[in-house]
Amino acid sequence: MRQLAGFFPATAYPDVLVGLGEPDDAAIYRLDDTRALINTTDFFTPIVDDPWTFGAIAAANAMSDVYAMGGEVLFALNIAGFPSDMEAGTIAQIFAGGAVKVREAGAAIAGGHTVNSPEPFYGLAVTGMVHPDHVMRKGGAHPGDQLFLTKPLGTGIIATTAKRTGPAESDEDRQARQAQGKPDLDVRDLDAAVVSMLRLNQAAARAARAADVRAATDITGFGLLGHASEMVLGSEPGVGFVIEAAAVPVLSGAFRYVEAGYVARGARLNPGHFGEHVHFADAIPATLRTVLWESETSGGLLLAVPPAQVRVFEQACAKVEQSVWRIGEVVRREGIQVI
């Protein structure tokens, strides 16, 4: 998309505060001195078997980009495609799950569009609002800022494991897998991943606004290290991150499933896109490196919190029972160092 930036130069559209020229999470258009619209869209194919849960996760994931920009959701439009022979009740459950999450955000489903598709997909086009002076961007991190993550990693790994060891697995494949010593999916691990994916990033974004955070992103397809790289590249030259690997929260079972080979495309592709910006200490094991690179679905926010506002941020999170982990800091150096 950024190849189109030349057709829409920022100088010709001064009210487009965030657009094609920046690798940010959503577009922002200024209405006046106190209001700016946020617009984003996202959709994907099912990652869990239950249709209601799939719809709810897809909606939470789509709205996350509004929260990553520091805003609140106003309304959303459904974007969906289904096979022509898919049961109407299943489709209704997908839409119902999405609607419940949008209502939880204090917003409304106001319409949408559905097409025939050989494989089902669902998501939202989301419109939000933010004060123009309080936008959170991927760039804008400063040395001394403390890095916080608001959800554990591992949803992509666990969802991949569920696909490869779930009901669709043939008896022959199951027997071969078990003969190789590869584990079954522990349903408790999947339940924990679903709970994480269903949680909105709304409370985390509000806590960030209370602490005057200006640099943030949400962790999705590029994984923690890919999205962290985007933040580093978007900040002023000479700004880098130090990430303390042992402090990064990881869902139960994720390491075991990585060792069994249950990884998705993100763990293979993201290092190729961003690897030149990331340097690991020799002691960081391969399984942990994979988890840090792997794609996430409806992941948490990665926030660069000014040092003077850390206590404000942590207290705001505690007040609404929002989990948060300090995983590193912003430093005066190039790239990302994982120690």
**pLDDT under 50 segments (min length 5)?**
none
What distance separates the N and C termini? 34 Å
Percent of residues in helices: 25-40%
Total beta strands: 13
Radius of gyration: 20 Å
* Main beta sheet: 7 strands, mixed
What does this structure look like?
By secondary structure, this protein is α+β, with helices and mostly antiparallel strands. The chain folds into two domains: 2-134, 60s Ribosomal Protein L30, Chain: A (2-Layer Sandwich), CATH 3.30.1330; 146-338, PurM-like C-terminal domain (Phosphoribosyl-aminoimidazole Synthetase, Chain A, domain 2). The chain has eleven helices and 13 strands. The protein has a seven-stranded mixed beta sheet with strand order 8-11-7-12-9-13-10, with helices on both faces. The chain has a six-stranded mixed beta sheet with strand order 1-2-3-6-4-5, with helices on one face. The protein starts with 15 loop residues before the first strand and ends with a strand. The mean pLDDT is 94.
Note the main attributes of this structure.
single chain, 339 residues, alpha+beta, 60s Ribosomal Protein L30, Chain: A, Phosphoribosyl-aminoimidazole Synthetase, Chain A, domain 2, 2 domains, seven-stranded mixed beta sheet, six-stranded mixed beta sheet, 11 helices, globular
